[in-house]
Amino acid sequence: MKIRRFLAFASLLFSCVAVGQSPPSITPQIVVVPSGNLRLKGYLWRPAGSVPSPAVLFVHGSGSSDASHTGGFAITEAAERLAPTFIKHGYAFLYLFRRGQGLSADQGPFMQDVLQREKDTKGEEARKRLQFVLLTTDHLDDVTAGLSFLKNLPGDGRQLEFPAGDN
Q1: pLDDT digit string (tens) for 110-138?
Q2: If you count DSSP H runs as helices and E runs as strands, how many of each does the chain have, helices first?
Q3: Who contacts 80 (Cβ-Cβ below 8 Å, separation ≥6)?
């Protein structure tokens, strides 16, 4: 039930941002988030001012048929549309690119490619098992790395409000 509420919130948030006017131009900092042997990249936006701010980690979905899109948008456009919503309310916002996608395209294969190969060679049930394993191991480790990155960010992240994402 919590997952459904979370997904509904993320979908609503993404929909509200997507149908609104174009967001103001805010330039993110490109950061590197270590996750095991990987060096995932992300866009980090910080609100104006020197006061420590709460932080949000946003992990995009990998449900698109290609690695350069999420939720019907180019993956970088999705990040740029979401960030202003949080920034204007005083949150730091980290949009972490998943392995094989966006700025982290060189950090492993795109999950949908891996799952499709599994389905083609071993069937749908094997694909589902592999997806569960990946989401509860490697990809969960990446989310944990993003949270650790924010927690250790000077001035921000000490009060991590919630991780968010869409798929």
Answers
A1: 999 999 999 999 999 999 999 999 999 99
A2: 5, 7
A3: 23, 26, 28, 43
For the beta carbon of residue 110, count every other beta carbon within 10 angstroms.
19
Q: Are 164 and 96 in contact (CB under 8 A)?
A: no
pTM for the model stands at 0.78
Q: Which domain holds residue 38?
A: 2-165
What is the amino acid identity at position 41? K
Position 86: which residue type?
F
CB contact at 8 A, 83 and 26: yes
d(CA 106, CA 83): 24
How many domains would you assign to the chain? 1
Cα separation, 134 vs 96, in Å, equals 17
Cβ count within 10 A of residue 76: 16
Tell whether the torsion through CA atoms of 16, 161, 7 and 136 is positive or negative. Answer: positive
Helices 138-151 and 124-136, interaxial angle, to 10°?
20
